[in-house]
Structure prediction request, 114 residues.
Amino acid sequence: VQLVESGGGLVQPGGSLRLSCVASGFTFRNYVMSWYRQVPGKERELVAVISNTGGSRNYADSVKGRFTISRDNARNTVYLQMNSLKPEDTGVYYCIVPSFESYRGQGTQVTVSS
Prediction:
């Protein structure tokens, strides 16, 4: 299992970013995918989950209405569109396959600051 996240960066409050995660080493279309974020000194937080077909999506209360998870099974890629970003969204974002939780990519840093 390989997961490669990208798309993070520095953005001002109210801005947007789109994260991508390219997966390989397993049959992507068969698996639920998720995005987590990690802030030093805090527990890892589940941000969003999407079913294998994309027909079901769930979000943390803290990001509902602002973030959208999606996937392209033809490209083995899961996305996280993040709008109306807040400073508390700052962290390292990881995509994780719930069925293979021990595998993790390098993550992508998101910093929301003026």
Observations:
- The chain is about 0% helix and 45% strand.
- The chain has a mean pLDDT of 96.
